[in-house]
């Protein structure tokens, strides 16, 4: 691993340990975690590695293979109140949240390495979780799964400034090899979903548009406000009780209320709510399809989810939409959609592993024909569903 080598080069010794957190894919349940809907996802075998050793001074000294030459340094007990605006904010936020709950004395020297291009696989949550795990280990702190999930989420919400839900963190901690995590984001009921042996083999592929993103915070947060505005208005139309605007979620709105009053919503709010109700139902159907071994139906739902993200949730960009369209017409692709927030980044696909090579080649040819300028930036990769961090705690 490059982070191990870089660590040895910088410090003249091997790292004491490596902290790893896989990225996540979530084929169903996009953009409804923050509205307390259901999600389906898992951690994957690619992610963030941090090669580290302890620093008794309490200093964290961090280098990143992905951001060369930009070393970051801070003391575990003197984290700036406001984010600094560089790549290490995720680590500062992580240390701050851990330090709010537990006394910290020891820092780390660390070299961080992220596999694959950034964007769409939730590298933010992975780096936070890998960093919290390393810092907890050198300070002799043991964290429970949900404690880690909520701490990592708080680092993004309260320090980095993204109002993300818990999809990424839950998948990266609770995910298990070859299974889906099915999570109800309203009450955190979680279960693992397996396919029957009779199901055709399923593979997973990721297609990077070539457009990396630092989280499109403002667009992501704006969509959430639109969802809340839809929920608030629907509850008011139906004379149902509501509380603070900031605490209102579409999950509180009964589906019949949406059906009855949707035409009174401004168009944008109606579309966001349409996405919520459709996507939540798709997750439930998707679980059943996977458990019944109906891969074609599962894939169809994933494509439908992608269409709703484009038409109703209105995220994406022309490049990602083109990728989605190419996936739809490629033989051997059961289903595909934007991965993650979907403003830039990548698409994920559920594929027939026997057709993997043809699929990767065809998609690349068609995409680069449409966007020749992205040659060298576009790339694809395959991945598998792997154990999350919780399996190792
Ligand atoms: C990002 C957020 C998640 C989730 C997805 C979209 O990855 O961090 O909480 O909302 O987008 O499903």
What does this protein structure show overall?
- With 393 residues, this protein is of the alpha+beta class.
- It has 2 domains: 2-188, Ribosomal Protein S5, domain 2, CATH 3.30.230.10; 193-386, Alpha-Beta Plaits (2-Layer Sandwich), CATH 3.30.70.890.
- The protein has 11 helices and 11 strands.
- It has helices at residues 2-11, 89-101, 123-138, 145-160, 167-174, 217-237, 255-261, 267-291, 295-311, 318-328, 356-370; strands spanning 17-28, 38-55, 59-64, 72-75, 107-114, 180-184, 189-193, 203-208, 333-338, 346-351, 379-383.
- Strands 1, 2, 3, 4, 5, 6 and 7 form a 7-stranded mixed β-sheet that branches.
- α3 crosses α4 (145-160), α4 (145-160) runs antiparallel to α5 (167-174) and α10 runs antiparallel to α11 (356-370).
- The protein is globular and about 65 Å long.
- The two termini are 22 Å apart.
- The structure holds alpha-D-galactopyranose (GLA).
- Residues 30-31, 33-34, 122, 164-165, 167-168, 340-341 line the site of alpha-D-galactopyranose (GLA).
Could you list some keywords that capture this structure?
11 strands; alpha+beta; 11 helices; four-stranded antiparallel β-sheet; single chain; Alpha-Beta Plaits; seven-stranded mixed β-sheet; binds alpha-D-galactopyranose; 2 domains; Ribosomal Protein S5, domain 2; 393 residues
Shape: globular
End-to-end CA span: 22 Å
State the total count of DSSP E strands.
Answer: 11
Mean pLDDT: 96
Attached small molecules: alpha-D-galactopyranose
Largest sheet: 7 strands, mixed
CATH superfamily of the largest domain: GHMP kinase, C-terminal domain
Query: What is the CATH topology classification name of the largest domain?
Result: Alpha-Beta Plaits
Q: How many individual domains?
A: 2
Residue share in helix: 40-55%
Helices and strands, in order, run as HEEEEHEHHHEEEHHHHHEEHE
CATH class of the largest domain: Alpha Beta
Number of helices, where a helix is a run of at least 4 consecutive DSSP H or I residues: 11
**Helix/strand structural class:** alpha+beta
Strand content: 15-25%
Question: What is the rounded Rg?
Answer: 21 Å
């Amino acid at each position: 691993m490059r982070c191990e080598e870089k660590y040895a080069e910088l410090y003249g010794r091997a790292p004491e340990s490596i902290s790893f957190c896989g990225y996540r894919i979530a084929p169903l349940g996009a953009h409804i975690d923050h509205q307390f809907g259901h999600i389906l996802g898992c951690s994957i075998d690619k992610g963030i590695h941090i090669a580290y050793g302890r620093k008794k001074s309490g200093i964290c000294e961090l280098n990143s293979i992905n951001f060369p030459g930009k070393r970051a340094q801070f003391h575990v007990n003197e984290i700036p109140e406001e984010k600094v605006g560089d790549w290490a904010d995720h680590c500062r936020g992580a240390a701050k949240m851990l330090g709010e709950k537990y006394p910290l004395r020891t820092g780390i020297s660390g070299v961080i390495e992220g596999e694959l291009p950034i964007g769409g696989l939730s590298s933010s949550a992975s780096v936070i979780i890998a960093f919290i795990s390393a810092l907890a280990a050198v300070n002799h702190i043991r964290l429970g799964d949900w404690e880690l999930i909520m701490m990592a989420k708080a680092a993004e919400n309260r320090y980095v400034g993204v109002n993300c839900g818990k999809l990424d963190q839950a998948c990266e901690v609770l995910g298990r090899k070859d299974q889906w995590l099915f999570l109800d984001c309203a009450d955190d009921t979680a279960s693992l979903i397996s396919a029957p042996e009779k199901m055709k083999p399923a593979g997973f592929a990721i297609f990077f548009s070539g457009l990396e993103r630092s989280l499109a915070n403002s667009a992501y947060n704006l969509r959430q406000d639109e969802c809340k505005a839809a929920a608030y208005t629907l509850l008011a139309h139906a004379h149902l009780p509501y509380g603070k605007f900031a605490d209102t979620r579409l999950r509180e709105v009964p589906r019949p209320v949406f059906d009855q009053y949707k035409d009174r919503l401004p168009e944008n709010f109606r579309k966001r709510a349409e996405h919520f109700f459709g996507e939540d139902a798709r997750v439930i159907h998707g679980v059943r399809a996977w458990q019944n071994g109906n891969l074609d139906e599962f894939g169809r739902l994933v494509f439908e989810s992608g269409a709703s993200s484009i038409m109703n949730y209105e995220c994406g960009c022309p490049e990602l939409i083109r990728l989605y369209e190419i996936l739809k017409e490629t033989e051997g692709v059961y289903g595909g959609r934007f991965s993650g927030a979907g403003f830039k980044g990548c698409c994920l696909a559920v594929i027939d592993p026997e057709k993997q090579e043809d699929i990767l080649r065809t998609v690349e040819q068609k995409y680069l024909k449409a966007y020749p300028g992205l040659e060298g930036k576009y790339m694809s990769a395959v991945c598998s569903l792997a154990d999350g961090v919780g399996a190792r705690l």
